[in-house]
Amino acid sequence: MMDIDADKYWFDEKEAQRAVEFFENYLIHVKGELAGSPFKLAGWQREHIIQPMFGWKHKDTGLRKYRTIYCAVPKKNGKSLLAAGIALFLQHADHEPGAEVYSAAADRDQASIVFDVAKQMVLTNPSLNARTKCYRVSKVMVVEDEGTVYKALSSDAHTKHGYNPHGIIFDELHTQPNRDLWDTLTTGVVARRQPVVFAITTAGYDRNSICYEIHDYACKVRDGIIEDETFLPVIYAAPDDADWTDEQVWRDANPNFEVSVKRDYFVQKVKEAQSSPAKENVFKRLHLNVWTEQSERWLEMPAWNKCGEQKFTAESLHGQECIGGLDLGATADLTALCLLFESKDPPAYKALWWFWCPADNARKRERRDRAPYETWARQKHITLTPGNETDYNQVRSDVNEIAEKYVVKELAVDRLFQGAQLAQQLGDDGFEVVPFGQGFMSMAAPTQEFERVVNRGEFLHGNNPVMKWMASNVAVKMDSAGNLKPDKEKSGEKIDGVVASIMAVGRWMVTERKKPSVYETRGIQHI
Q1: Higher confidence at residue 520 or residue 274?
Q2: Number of domains the chain contains
């Protein structure tokens, strides 16, 4: 437990115990092997959440100390059951006139999970059932005599203004597509005396999300880096560098291990994960609460980061030969250019990138893609073109200007894309434009080569921040023969720079195959 200032706060044993007894006397388990038995809080739930949450109070006002509780625990450790109990206590037993309690999540179905557990608890307790009206379709429970309401919400943030929450249960915060719903609801608690925001989640993989922002804040509060006396962090997770196959690591990260989380299940999941990097990531994220780089990993980020250790500048490559890959996004999307240079000492590629994005969409894209487009634009990593569609004339002009500094031998462009006109224009400008397909036939070999050179530390990228974000996003699809290629749909976030890089790698591979043999260079007749 974090140090608490005894001059400012006191622990109300009676109120803390009243909350514990509400769980044990009014609520039952509604699922699993414990269904029908009283909800006796596990030690970690009682001592690290319920008692501190309801027991610590301000000496001067008598109001509760903690307003926000961030509970990050691996899957199947009873988060939803605990959250349902807290919601019911806030509605029925917290002595808040006209209490409004809401379950929120990325969508209404997810928000309904905690609500439905709470409703089952109410229906199985004669005392709670007698005083509560439950509306199944609208997902609302009302105590009319006291004017309290508990409701599951949809995710449409723009409809949630005007609420006056006393309690907010945020389920699986890592699935929130942006910060809108969080901001709308949490700013609505200002009129309440002692509101509670209880956020429960397992780890995610998007480090540009509202969940990771709150998670990072919680870690800093826990570690004493940030002082926030209203915030209670409760985090169970394996260290990032822990041996994820070690049973002790499983136990340490799962407070309900061998209660609701069974050892045999872990043994089976680890066996599956050892044969698949994607499944390894899922296991770490869901069962050890480790934040991973993406949902289905392809590139190892330590390997990517190692490729950034050797420093170089764009100016140092002026006048050198290179091959370009141009990934033309939709008119309202990102466009990416990669120039790839061969380095002989040591053998490696050196890469430079340019990105274009419609200026009018940059802020909207920050929210949708959860990446700092406008910051990157100020840092000259992205060029914002006027309007709400990518200005291909600007792209054409910039590519020609870039080519004045480097010797661009070829420019690979998606042969089926709607930017065919730009490809034609660049050809008219004197570029050797090479159509490049996006199917397995064209992409498989360069995708494999790209992965190989990244893992060997031979893809030098200069720590471009846009590319680091894209490299952390990229997922791949596999055909029946085991060939891989980037999958934009599965990746979720933008990977245009990776695709442009792979196209350039593909053309370098063709160039290598076309080099004259030793017989030709030495004038030897090849029989």
Answers
A1: 274
A2: 3
**Which range marks the domain in which residue 270 is found?**
247-292
pLDDT(233) > 60 = yes
The reply to whether 336 and 464 lie within a common domain is yes
pLDDT digit string, tens, across residues 467-480 = 998 998 888 887 75
Name which of 148, 144, 138, 143 is nearest 115 in CA terms: 138
Arithmetic mean of pLDDT, 382-407: 92
pLDDT at 366 over 80: no
Answer yes or no: is pLDDT of 518 > 50: no
Indicate if the pLDDT at residue 522 is higher than 50.
no
Q: How far is CA 355 from the centre of its chain?
A: 23
How many whole angstroms separate alpha carbon 458 and alpha carbon 51? 54
Determine the Cα–Cα distance for residues 510 and 97; give it in Å rounded to an integer: 74
Is residue 75 within 8 Å of residue 41, measured between CB atoms? no
Same domain, 315 and 206: no
Q: Is 483 exposed, middle or buried (0-12, 13-18, 19+ CB in 10 A)?
A: middle
Same domain (yes/no): 274, 382 = no
Residues 199 and 322 in one domain: no
How far CA 54 is from CA of 39, 170, 235, in Å, comes to 18, 18, 18
Which two three-digit tokens encode residue 246? 């070690």
Inside any domain, residue 240: no
pLDDT at position 50 over 60: yes
Peptide bond into 346 cis (omega under 30): yes
More confident residue, 480 or 91: 91
Residue 10 in tokens = 């006191």
Q: What are phi and psi of 90, to 5 degrees?
A: -65, -35
Distance CA 446, CA 438 (A): 11
